Each structure stands twice: as C-alpha cells, then as structure tokens.
Amino acid sequence: MPPSCTKRKQWGKGASSGAFPRIRDSTGSSLLPPPELSLKPGLLEPPPSSPDVLLSLIPLSTERSNSRQPSQWVKDRLFKTKVCRYFIKGRCKYGDKCTYAHSADEVQAIPDLHKTRTCYKINCTNQSCPFAHSIYELRDPFVGSELI
C-alpha cells in the first residue's frame, strides 16, 4: 500500500490528501495554529516578476468583490499617482484616457501596499524589506490601507 494511503487511514475516514493529522505536544495541546491562522493556498509562493501578474495576485475581499477583478482594483488605486512624462514633453497620445496625471491637481496619493505579499527570499533579514516574512506580518490590502 502506498505511504499516502497509509497516512489517510491513520488520520481517519474522509481525510483528504490536504488534511493535516492532529499533532499534539506532551500536554495534549494541538501544535497546529488555530483555523483562522491557517495558511491560504498560494500564500507562500514567491511573487512573480511581471507587474501584470503581480496585479492579478491580490485577492478580492468579500466587501469589495462586486464584479471588478483584483487587478482592476489595483489599477484604480494606482490611477494617476504619477505625472505623465509624455504630457510634460507635449506628446501624450492618450489625452483624457491617459492613466497618468497631466497636472499637479490630478496626482493621487499612492496606496500603502507594504507587507501585503510574502517575501520570495527564504532567509531575508532586511529590516526595510517591503514584503511580509510570516503570515503574522501579512496585511490585507483592502483593510486599513490608508494612503501615504
């Protein structure tokens, strides 16, 4: 019998391959974190290098899900946070549809996205690293994301 089948039998009926056995210390207390702190699928995957892929990784909050995609939420938050370099040179071909600001009045504040994704470096010790190094450091980009 394959080892995976043996483990399922040890864990009890109905245990799936994603289930965890009940591990307890000598006092009988569970060594697993409480369910509300359990890892979410993909939580510890390294961030991709493409900005377009990064935009699609931010999860939807139940309060903000509506019909918009997560990448659209990020694009909305980053809309006109920088001045258009082509407009400054008088050559912006997008006009009113440009996602960059064409005047100082249009410039929006940049949202704080620090610690909203996990760091891809395994042994990162950089105190100023903008990425989270544990599930306890992770912030929800939709909750308490005051603008800087």
Contiguous low-pLDDT stretches (5 residues minimum) are 5-20, 49-68
Helix/strand-derived class? mainly alpha
Number of helices: 4
- The N- and C-terminal alpha carbons lie at a distance of 58 Å
CATH architecture of one domain: Irregular
Mean pLDDT: 67
Give the biggest beta sheet: none
**Computed Rg:** 22 Å
Q: How helix-rich are the residues, as a percent range?
A: 10-25%
Q: Report the top-level CATH class of one domain.
A: Few Secondary Structures
What would the CATH topology of one domain be?
A: CCCH zinc finger
Estimate the global geometry from the Cα principal axes. elongated
- One letter per element, helices H and strands E, the order comes to HHHH
- The overall strand count is 0
Fourth CATH level, the homologous superfamily of one domain:
Zinc finger, CCCH-type
Strand content: under 5%
